[in-house]
Write a structure and sequence with these properties.
2 domains; 388 residues; Growth Hormone, Chain: A; 0% strand; mainly alpha
Length: 388
């Protein structure tokens, strides 16, 4: 909750803070935030490996403490050079908290309860993030109050670090003979699961970027409905994420759930495609609302299936490394998805939406077999490493 409120405050208010208080150009802010996102390709896996070696709880305390310092330093930034340097460092550290947090869950929670706990944590995260947006909105009311955006986030990250110290500590698991560091990113079968999951995670881009851009530029949907639809999506995740995680605590169950999420994703895109054929305001409004509902179902299913696949395909001694590598499917979608999918539908309209739907169906057909092959590879590697 502390982390999510802090991220809600900063992510929703950072553009306002850097442009109005620091005086940066919007393009400079966008470039800096993009550079921070690119650092995730390295930090997600790297910090996962470190978590397995030094202990997830210890590393998570250090990361939150470092973030508290980093966000606090934003209050002193007064030029573009300092902004670029700090935003990349903070982004690099921030993207390491995900796999480290997951490794801590893997160390403290029995295998059959990990996916359910992650679902509960995501619901809590959405609640906290929403609260953070409200705090940022209050801070944006006055030029003087804008400095509260980084300072509030810094204080909440420090609180998160203190809270993590209250959790039990577990020793790092010994690495069996035969396993190598960075094995996750060198395993083609595991990476194939990550690749297919990247396509199934397209709901992230569609809900947050592609659908709003399409609705604003190519439909008669009243503009005030768009933020309301995003609020509806957030509430839906809060209410149904835990329920959607049922059955995803095994690789096979998670694979089947991922397959169903692809069907829902394809259905949502097909419904939006209808709005390219008829611009009647009533039809467009009904179709967009229905599509957001369908895509929200796809979102909670795919998120739960992703946790099940990540935990299920990760060796017990390398939870952080494999979880960090699996996070690349969301990181990749966040970086290349907005430009690719939005460009596709804006350029090709109806056929662009159908193209996304077809890609989702292809990914649905592939996810179960590639997940099973990844599970077989893990079983063989484990047997080989532990045999005399």
């Amino acid at each position: 909750m502390a982390e999510s409120i802090g991220k809600g405050v900063f992510l929703s208010g950072s553009v306002v803070y850097f442009t109005l208080r620091v005086g940066l150009d919007p393009k400079q802010v966008g470039l800096g935030l993009s550079a921070a996102g690119m650092s995730a390709f390295i930090s997600s896996v790297l910090f996962g490996v470190i978590a397995d070696r030094v202990g997830a709880r210890r590393l998570l305390v250090m990361l939150f403490a470092a973030l508290a310092v980093g966000f606090g330093l934003y209050a002193l930034v007064d030029n573009a050079f300092h902004f670029f340097a700090l935003v990349v460092v903070v982004g690099f550290i921030e993207y390491g908290t995900g796999p480290t947090n997951g490794a801590l869950v893997g160390n403290l929670v029995p295998a059959e309860e990990r996916v359910k706990l992650k679902a509960m944590m995501r619901s809590v995260f959405n609640i906290g993030f929403s609260i953070g947006i409200g705090v940022a909105a209050v801070a944006a009311l006055s030029q003087r109050l804008l400095v509260l955006i980084p300072l509030t986030t810094a204080a909440l990250m420090a609180s998160a670090a203190l809270l993590v110290t209250r959790l039990p500590d577990t020793p790092s698991r010994p690495v069996p003979v035969g396993f190598k560091r960075f094995a996750a990113v060198r395993d083609p079968r595991f990476l194939s699961v990550v690749g297919v999951s990247t396509v199934l995670a397209s709901h992230v881009t569609v809900i947050l970027v592609t659908m709003p851009l399409w609705a604003l530029n190519r439909t008669s949907l009243p503009h005030f409905l768009i933020p309301l639809l995003l609020i509806f999506n957030t509430v839906f995740v809060i209410l149904f994420q835990v329920r959607a995680s049922r059955g995803a605590d095994t690789v096979d169950g998670a694979g089947r759930l991922a397959r169903r999420s692809g069907y829902w994703l394809a259905g949502g895109c097909a419904v939006i495609a209808v709005t390219a054929l008829n611009d009647d305001i009533v039809l467009v409004s009904v179709a967009i609302v229905a599509a957001v509902l369908i895509l929200s179902v796809a979102e909670v299913m795919q998120a739960a299936s992703g946790w099940g696949l990540a935990f299920g395909l990760a060796p017990e001694h390398a939870q952080g490394e494999y979880l960090g590598a699996f996070d690349l499917h969301v990181i990749t979608q966040n970086i290349i998805g907005p430009a690719m999918l939005s460009g596709l539908v804006i350029a090709f309209g109806f056929w662009g939406w159908l193209g996304i739907a077809v890609a989702a169906l292809v990914a649905s057909a592939l996810i179960v077999p590639v997940a099973r092959r990844g599970e077989v590879t893990l079983a063989r590697a484990t047997a080989s490493a532990t045999s005399p």
